[in-house]
Amino acid sequence: MSDADISILLVDDHPLVRDGLRARLEAAPRLRVVGEAGSAEEALEQAGLLQPDLVLMDVNMRGGSNTSGIEATARLLERYPDIAVLMLSMHDRPEYVTQAIQAGARGYVLKDAPGKDIVLAIDTVMGGGIYYSAALARQLASPPAASTGVGEGLTAREQEILRFIAAGQSNKGIARELDLSVRTVETHRLNIKRKLGIEGQAELIRYAIQHAGL
Hints:
alpha/beta, 6-stranded parallel β-sheet, about 15% strand, transcription, Sig_transdc_resp-reg_receiver, DNA-binding
């Protein structure tokens, strides 16, 4: 991550929430709020005008056309694929996370998360990673009670690693959790991609989110 400022567009249909987020973010070095929007239509307009580095998008935000934040994310990224989107929500329902990632979001943060977590999420996303609030990460990393067909053809260890990938863990994080070397985790990831016919990192993350019991 470079030391350059990160420009942010805030999208939430509650002005008081936007005010609180702006205060949190502008207290952090390098974060610069360049605009706000209260609807999907306004978000698309402001994103085109301002070209921010990142959009902090409310999941349940509604616009004049009854467009949710997840739908707005898909539309925004179709027009401006270089802008990163980080979802913000009061809800920790896994299906929302799945839909957000499918729409192209790079992370999902709960509104009641500490300010430092939101800053960490922004830094992680702008560094090319995927970020989930801690409570969500624990849910996503836990094996579902009765999941089947998760990564058919993968070994038990590879399926375990797939769940950690879904939870946004880095190779170092997975290695630490499973008491493996980073090189071993990297090898497992390569084997997973080869077996599933997946090439890119983003495609692997989407597959993990969609199939890790969510």
